Amino acid sequence: MAQVGGLRTNDTILKLEDVHMYFGKVAALAGVSLEVKQGEIHSIIGPNGAGKTVMMNCINGLYRPQKGGIYFKGQSINDLRPHQRARLGISRTFQKIELFGGMTVLDNIRLGRHVHLKSGIVSGSIYVGKTRHEELEARRFIEEEIIDLLEIESIRNKTVHMLPYGLQKRVELGRALALNPELLLLDEPLAGLNLEEVEDMARFILDINEEDRWRVTCILVEHDMGVVMDISNSVFVLNFGNMITDGPPEEVQKNPDVIKAYLGEEELYSTRR
Amino acid sequence: MNGSGIKITKDLTIPKLFVSQCKRYGRKKVAMREKEFGIWRPLTWKDYYDNVKYLSLGMVSLGLRKGDKVAMIGDNRPEGLWAEMAALCAGGIGVWLFQDCMMDEVKYIIDHSDSKFFVGETQEEVDKALSIKGDCPDLEWIIWDDPKGMRNYHQDCLISIEKTQELGKELDRKEPDLFEKMVNKGHGDDICLLFYTSGTTSLPKGALLTHWNMLTMGQNLMSVDPCYDTDDFVSYLPFAWIGEQMMSISCGLQIGYTINFPEEPETAQDNIREIGPHVMFAPPRLYEGMTRSVQVKRMDSSWIKRKIYEFGTKVGYKVANLRFEKKPVLLHWKFLGWVAYVVMQKKLKDHLGMSRLRHAYTGGAAMGPDHFRFFHALGVNLKQIYGQTEIAGISIVHRDGDVKFDTVGTPLPGTEVRITEAGEIISKSPSVFKGYYKNDEETRKSLVDGWLYSGDRGFIDEDGHLVVFDRSKDVMTLNDGRPFSPQYLETRLKFSPFVKEAWVIGDKRDYVVAVMCVDYSVVGKWADDKKINYTSYHELSQKPEVYDLVQKQIEEANKDLPGPAKIRRFVNLYKVFDADDEELTRTSKLRRTFVENRYKDIVDAFYRDTEVIHMDTTITYEDGREQRIKTDLRIQRIGE
């Protein structure tokens, strides 16, 4: 299993300060603060409706919080739109798969790379010099770093909607990686997968986090407590928009408030082992 | 001669041949290709030579000595072949393991063979090796080649291929002619491979094969069906199967054709199509798989395509049958054959990667006449091969223009085949092995005065072709006293795309029965189309509609059989036979004695007047986990 804490540094990569997010009068996030260190896997857990996905959406810019600040590597990103945040190196996957079903696996992944391509329409249609070089480099990156890592060689030319769910999840991760992110937001990457697929996905997340080539900081929203407790450096527990606790997995598991929020769900963890 | 002008002498070894071929072709010719990161990447003979040389010297500096065993496991890839060649160059003996071997099998083989080195591919194989290392005292080094997932492994016994090659380079600087010296020390009678045969009855036995065995076998095959150094061959079947060794080493090295490695096992079919090999050797299940996919795709295709297919196969069968009967093919049939080729066969062969194929061989298990005819109707020159690991692969093959689908052909040059009084097939050739490793008793049983006793029953027909009936101990006696081959019936049943595996029972019983395993994807799709709901293989197999479907397939196979051999009852099994459950060998042959014990309840119930069998067993998953299954199986009767 992971050498927990081995790759974590003391530099803060992402900081949320007193973030409030309201939908009408409902407080989805009521003053949440979070600090994510470079190189760690930081999980966010909580019961359904706790506001986990809202938090992800705030970080990547889909939602603008009414109050509070979000800082990426010390710089405020409150006013940046999602694609601008993506360019900074924040990438994500979605709880419900958001791929282009009619396109091939390769095209979907290439799309993730698009943000880094500089050539315009004109030079792209001539395909010489810099453009050519850029294109070849993008190809090399996708093939050698992503397809090889995720072991999806056999489906690279298949249309996405024809693939089983577990593979679609993998393709979505591939697209997120094509951005070459520094911070990766994973929204329930294990939901709906069978045991073998869960093991594969957990391995990929560890690879992305630990391999020298990647060293990507991950924020993981997940219900599978077994995996969360095994691979995370820190676990942030959210309930109805409020933080219950934030700390190493072993402490979080003992916290009485967490057990209370998860009343009746402790067994979920024990059965998975 | 074998087309390459190389003379096989007792002094020649595989490494000597390797070195001379590398010198001959150098940088001018591509020795192998591997598809990696979506692109075919060529390696010249010079690259092949350098990689093998430094790996070999690296192993020597880690302590490999003449006669030491080097166990290898992994998918087909250049590094696998380098490792084998490197071991042989240093005077070592290669031991191949099947990629999907369970832990116990790996342990048994590593321990029994006294392997000193273990060459794996990825973290997965390294894990296997590390977990058995404590039980295998001779095992010293574990070499790996894919760094993925290896970042947390720091054991002293682990080393990468790259690192080993660096050690080799260092040694080469100190002793520049050491490599050639090692190669020149070898003799044709030295053991080169310790090959574990997947026994249908007992623990694997290790057959000892010499350089002379391997090279003469290749030479004899190539004298029948010459290959050329411009040919392409795709290596995608396990190296632990003697057939693959035969094509990649025995023949490949002599001829110098290009060996192509697919990107991943799952992409092999696509990669074969891209390469379009000239020669192919695969066990029947691969061809069965192709037939099945063609039949299924046909069902899915549009009306017009189906009509074209039907026309093409009709003509194809007619022409093939005329050729089988050695009757002249008249002009109008030739013309229709050409039309069938243009409108159908050409395209279909391209999809199967067979458009450039000169010779296709099948061997290793029995193949049904229906499959055989199917490929000939497509215009594929498919030929039977018969042999054993103990004779370095093959001893008998069909000749071009003399193919009979119920025989396995005639002996290779230099090979004598006879039938003993008991009906057992025995053979003698320069390729007959030296004996089983640490098993004198079995050696005495199968090697008598240089004759190899196969344990197969058969006869030689009026044209001098060998007909293999079945394994002697598997031959059944019908209720009218006639001998009958269950394997024959099983292969006929498997011609149906819906049937994945079949097991026929009926030795000295009142009637013949069968246990059927349906093909999950094909029957699953059929059920989807019929709007039949199911959640698992188990549930699907027990649907009454699926029972009726299987019954139809059995009735089809029953048609041409004599009364007592017709199948009267069957059940659909709740799972497919699997090598991980020891029901099949690693080469997918049914282990009858084992399944008879395991499914004793089913066998008994067939011959009692029961309708339903209560089952309670466990199944093993690939990662070793087990699951208990409790279920009821229904026996269906046919034609009563």
Molecular structure report:
The complex is a heterodimer of chains A (273) and B (640). Chain A is α/β, with parallel strands linked by helices and 273 residues long. Chain A has two domains: 1-89 and 181-273, P-loop containing nucleotide triphosphate hydrolases (Rossmann fold); 102-180, no CATH class. Chain A is 40% helix and 23% strand. Chain A has eleven helices and ten strands. Chain A has helices spanning 52-60, 82-88, 105-113, 121-126, 129-150, 165-178, 195-210, 225-231, 249-254, 256-261, 266-272; strands at 12-23, 26-37, 41-45, 67-72, 75-76, 90-92, 183-187, 217-221, 234-239, 242-247. In chain A, the strands form two sheets. Chain A has a six-stranded mixed sheet with strand order 6-7-8-3-9-10, sandwiched between helices. Chain A has a four-stranded antiparallel sheet with strand order 2-1-4-5, with helices on one face. In chain A, helix 3 (105-113) packs parallel to helix 6 and helix 5 packs across helix 6 (165-178). Chain A is globular, with a radius of gyration of 19 Å. With 640 residues, chain B is an alpha/beta fold. Chain B has three domains: 14-278, ANL, N-terminal domain (Rossmann fold), CATH 3.40.50.12780; 282-355 and 357-472, Rossmann fold (3-Layer(aba) Sandwich); 475-637, GMP Synthetase, Chain A, domain 3. Helices cover 39% and strands 22% of the residues of chain B. Chain B is built from 21 helices and 30 strands. In chain B, the strands form eight sheets. Chain B has a five-stranded parallel sheet, sandwiched between helices. In chain B, helix 2 packs across helix 3 and helix 12 (303-324) crosses helix 13 (331-351). Chains A and B meet through helix 5 and helix 7 of A and loops of B.
